[in-house]
Amino acid sequence: MSRSHSPSSPRLAREASRLVALALALHSSGSRVEDTYWEAELATVITKLLRSGNDTAMDAALEHLSQNNLGGYEVLIEQAETLSESCVIEKDGVRHDVLLVIAPLVAWTRYSIPANPLPSAVLDTLLAQLHGHVLAANTQVALLPHLASLDQMPRSFSETWQWLQKLGMASLGQESIFPTLNSEPESFNMLADTRYVVAAVAVPEGRPIFRWQEEPGELGEGRVACLEKWVAQTQDTFARLLPGCGFEILVPDAYYVSNREADRRVRPLSVKAAVAWLGGALNIEPGQLRAVIAGCGERRIDEYRVGFTQKNKGEVIYGCLWPLYGREDDQTLPEDEAPVPETSDEIAALIKECGVTDIRKLPGILPPEFCEDCGAPFFPNPSGEMVHAELPEDAEMAPAHFH
Fold first, then answer.
1. CA–CA distance, 49 with 160 (Å, rounded to integer)
2. Are 237 and 231 in contact (CB under 8 A)?
3. CA 150 → CA 104, 244, 262, distances in Å?
4. How many CA atoms, within 13 angstroms, populate the side-chain half-sphere of residue 102?
5. How far does CA 148 lie from the centroid of its chain?
6. How far is the first Cα of the chain from the last one, in angstroms, to the nearest whole number?
7. Among 252, 253, 257, which residue's Cα sits nearest to residue 129?
8. Which of 34, 156, 321, 342 lies 20 to 30 A from 198 at CA?
9. How many degrees, rounded to 5, is the angle at CA 187 between CA 183 and CA 190?
10. What CA–CA distance (Å, rounded) separates 399 from 401?
């Protein structure tokens, strides 16, 4: 899931400085025994910050490390993700491993992709299929009773931890209060987007959580087999939840890895869906569109934004987001391997495949601006300005709910 960091101050606060020191120590560790020590020290500091909702210190430490030590950055973000998506909860003297799990759907449509409450019958069906095909024996599960969009999901490490705690307690029958969904921008409907079934899974400490841990297969194909069965048994259920949509069902897995995989899958689909829909809405051919690609971020490119205009016009009529993961534009490869095309070139090639020939790539880095009134992201126009996307008055209406 895309997360941007605010620029760090020249001098780190005490908590952030401690996180940086511990992350660098763990990164330099020469043994598993030493790893365990530094991981425990980091866990103490990070858990304290998660409990207090202090994401500022973690964001500052991550920003500092991203600029000065990528190895330390990877260490710290892995620990922050692990500790915010998993924990140990004790019930009746028995310790349970608890993991925040999501089952992603990548959807595309000419309409509006629903993000609605899940009826009890659907929850029962999904729960049965999770137990039957994805989760290990002796797991206890609590499902969020809502098909969630990305904008409704947690926006920080501490908020993810709060979802984990509430759903984790619910999975063990100790609490019935579910997390509160975040509000989402009302004026910006995506033609391709992700939806999530969210769950917490609890199991006696040290036991398997997923079925592929019990049955990995001789060639490690256990995860593939689980996905095939999950898809086959949930296809009809999700089709009823997403009328008027095409969709791809991904394997349920841990919170952060599933988010990143779903976002990677939706990026090219969002571009293809945008070009196809704009052609129909404006009654024009793809060649009559222009695409403007801009890298956005604070100090480095965290995401690309694509603004679509009509050819020879400057008004942005629609836009797509292309978040980056794992420093995709900063990969170093062995000398004998061909270089990977830059992300902007990859996006431009995809747009060209869709029939759009007027493609402009803006130099430099633009700020990732959002509308202060509705929260919708701004997109680049041909002049290099970040603006609101607005359909022309004579176009068919913006993506609406399928009826």
1. 13
2. no
3. 10, 20, 10
4. 27
5. 12
6. 30
7. 252
8. 321
9. 90
10. 7
The two three-digit tokens of residue 32, written as one number: 């598993």
Is residue 241 within 8 Å of residue 98, measured between CB atoms? no
Kindly give the pairing relationship between strand 303-310 and strand 316-323. antiparallel
* Residue 190: alpha-carbon gap to chain centroid: 15
Domain ranges of the chain: 14-84, 92-259, 283-387
Q: Which two tokens stand for residue 143?
A: 């499902």
Looking at the DSSP bridge assignments, the partners of residue 360 are 292
Task: Name the token pair of 124.
Answer: 């029962």
Sign of CA dihedral 361, 389, 319, 297: positive
| Cβ-Cβ contacts under 8 Å for 85 (sequence gap 6 or more) | 99, 100, 160, 164, 254, 255, 256
Bridge partners (DSSP) listed for residue 380: 386
In one-letter notation, the amino acid at residue 63 is: E
- Give CA separation, 132 vs 227, 228, 260, in Å: 12, 12, 25
Q: What are phi and psi of 252, to 5 degrees?
A: -65, 135
φ, ψ of residue 233 to 5 degrees: the values are: -90, -15
- CB proximity list for 326: less than 8 A, separation 6 or greater: none
What residues form DSSP beta bridges with 193? 107
Task: Report which of 224, 155, 213, 164 is spatially closest to residue 184, judged by C-alpha positions.
Answer: 155
Tens of pLDDT along the chain (403 residues)? 444 444 444 578 999 999 999 999 999 999 999 999 999 999 999 999 999 999 999 999 999 998 899 999 999 999 999 999 999 999 999 999 999 999 999 998 877 889 899 999 999 999 999 999 999 999 999 999 999 998 899 999 999 999 999 999 999 998 778 999 998 765 456 788 999 999 999 999 999 999 999 988 777 789 999 999 999 999 999 999 999 899 999 999 999 999 999 989 999 999 999 999 899 888 999 999 999 999 999 878 989 999 999 998 999 999 999 988 865 554 443 444 444 458 999 999 999 999 999 999 999 999 999 988 888 899 999 999 999 998 887 766 555 544 3
The span from the CA of 384 to the CA of 362, in Å, is 7
The strand pairing partners of 97, in sequence order, are 88, 203
